[in-house]
Amino acid sequence: MAYNELEERPAPEHPDKPSGPTKLEGVAIRQALSRTLAEFSADNCTGLAAGLTYYAVFAIFPALIALLSLLGVVGQADSSIKAVLDVMRPLVSDGFLTNQVRPFVENLATAQGAGIGLVVGIVLALLSASGYVAGFRQAMNTILEVEEGRPIWILRPLQFLVTLVAVVLIAGALVILVVSGSVADSIGSKIGVGDQTVLVWNIAKWPVLLVIVVLVVALLYYATPNVKQPHIRWVSVGAFVAIVIWLVASVGFAFYVANFGSYNKTYGSLAFVIVALLWIWITNVALLFGAELDSELERVRELQAGIAAEDQLQLPLRDDRQIKKAEAKHELLLERARDLRRAR
């Protein structure tokens, strides 16, 4: 794409654009839905989701170390071990749970250096998760049909900030999941909280978890791509669809594994790893599908406003300096190639 085409892109809040999905014409909505499916395939979103799963796996292990070390520091090692084993019991064989998972979890939660494990786990989780954020940024740029134009000294601090916020939110969600049932009862008795308060917490944690999921998705959708979006939308149409797909797929997949799957018999000790990888991949597929839907809704908003977005979205870039440098370098290489051809 010629750089002058980028300079001509209109403002993200063009006055002629429909203000929201309810203002779109029926034919525009149908076109957005059909093109979402086509672009999801054309952009190889399932492959991009596999790459994101790779990055996510590297962040899970140090995050688990940090979580169990944290519970060990606050004196909830025994309760946290039981909670983790209860979560994993439907997914792996009893032998693997007893001989492999339990010793590993017990060592993490009861180690004398739990404080050191907490610090090391947090640092490693941040470094690993930053790779996931970088991968998600590249996927969003692909979906929104833009190149990365931000210099590294702007991109890296922004990437780390997004990673930090996302990790804090996800860590909070993991703590909320673990601090339930017997763990919540134990903590409640130690701090003098009554059974009624613990019951309220066990119920209220679910909407809190949903809010955390919404915040993480909104952060990834808004902050990572190299485009100036109209405004931050805490729950865009695409984000809502992604969360619904993720919830339905997660519940359905968990039900299948618990009741009909033969993972334990077929894969033995690898069953949990395979189940976890599939779930993470489903999560990333849902996120990228939601992003594709948002991008196609933006496209029909632009088309309905008379903006030529049939081939490429016309959102302005956050930064274009790296694109200018890349084009200048490409032109130099072309000129050298022409000189070589002419010299013959």
Describe the secondary structure blueprint for this structure.
Layout: H1 3-7, H2 26-42, H3 45-73, H4 77-88, H5 94-110, H6 114-143, H7 152-178, H8 182-190, H9 195-223, H10 237-259, H11 263-267, H12 271-304, H13 321-342
Helix pairs in contact: 2-12, 3-4, 3-5, 3-6, 3-12, 4-5, 6-7, 7-9, 8-9, 10-12
Notes on the structure:
This protein has helices at residues 3-7, 26-42, 45-73, 77-88, 94-110, 114-143, 152-178, 182-190, 195-223, 237-259, 263-267, 271-304, 321-342. The chain is mostly helical. The chain has one domain. α6 (114-143) crosses α7. It comes from Nocardioides mangrovicus. The chain crosses the membrane at residues 52-74, 114-134, 160-183, 203-222, 234-258, 270-291. This is YihY/virulence factor BrkB family protein. Residues 1-23 are annotated as: Disordered.
